[in-house]
Amino acid sequence: MLRTLLTASVAAAAFTGIAAADAGDFRFSGGYTYVDIEDLEFDAVSLRGGYDFTDFIGVEGQLDIGLGEETVRVGATNVDVSLDYAFGGYVVGRAPIAENANLFGRIGYVTAQADASAAGVTFSDDDDGFAYGVGGEWFFDGRNGVRVDYTRIDFDNADAADTFGISYVYRFGAR
Q1: Whether the Cβ atoms of residue 62 and residue 87 lie closer than 8 Å to each other
Q2: Which UniProt keywords apply (predicted)?
Q3: Between the N and C ends of the chain, which has fewer C-beta atoms within 10 Å?
Q4: Could you give the CA distance from residue 53 to residue 44 in angstroms, rounded to a whole number?
Q5: What is the value of pTM for the model shown?
Q6: What is the pLDDT of residues 58-104, one digit of tens each?
Q7: Considering the chain, what is the average pLDDT of its residues?
Q8: Is pLDDT of 30 > 50?
Q9: Contacts of 88 (CB under 8 A, 6+ apart)
Q10: What is the C-alpha separation between 41 and 43, in angstroms, rounded?
């Protein structure tokens, strides 16, 4: 149900934005994200692509690829846990605060997969959930910039995750 509602919301925002905009901007970014899930901490490479329909509304997709693993102790056994990936789609609302800077909020849905291994046995599991966050972007010129963001993911079957990211952003299109 939530996926259907989110998909319909993204589609409605896309069609509304297309009708209101002369031409939009595409954005691509790459950077680092720190992921904190209860007692587990992961590092990830983040790749993001998006489209701004207007100065105020856009959509973006994000792929986080885990780096390394975290070892936790369960009873007398060490368990290695790794984040394989997290993929999310978001609707983004922006508030320009200067010519080359904006604040943003985003809502979306994320699916993630992690592996756990101990004593030669590996178990994979995936989970998904509603995500929401805030951040800011500052562009050195009209195209190149830096982004910082915070996102909370409320997974359906696991603890919530808090993510903190910093990325290089390249924007191209109508501007």
Answers
A1: yes
A2: Signal
A3: N
A4: 28
A5: 0.81
A6: 999 999 999 988 888 888 888 999 999 999 999 999 999 998 999 99
A7: 87
A8: yes
A9: 61, 62, 108, 109, 110, 111, 131, 153
A10: 7
Task: Give the DSSP letter string of 3-72.
Answer: HHHHHHHHHHHHHHHHHH-SS-EEEEEEEEEEEEETTEEEEEEEEEEEEESSSSEEEEEEEEEEES-EEE
- DSSP structure class, residue 120: T
Using DSSP's 3-state secondary structure scheme, residue 2 falls into helix
Widest distance between CA atoms in the chain: 62
Plot region of 75 (φ>0 → left; ψ -120 to 50 → alpha; else → beta): left
Which residues are registered as beta bridge partners of 57? 93
- Please name each of the domains of the chain with its CATH number: 2-173 (2.40.160.20)
- DSSP structure class, residue 163: E
- Contact at 8 Å (CB) between 132 and 105? yes
Record the tokens describing residue 23, joined without a space.
């031409």
**Beta-ladder partners of 31:** 46, 167
Angle at 77 between CA 75 and CA 78, to 5 degrees: 120
State which amino acid sits at residue 50: G
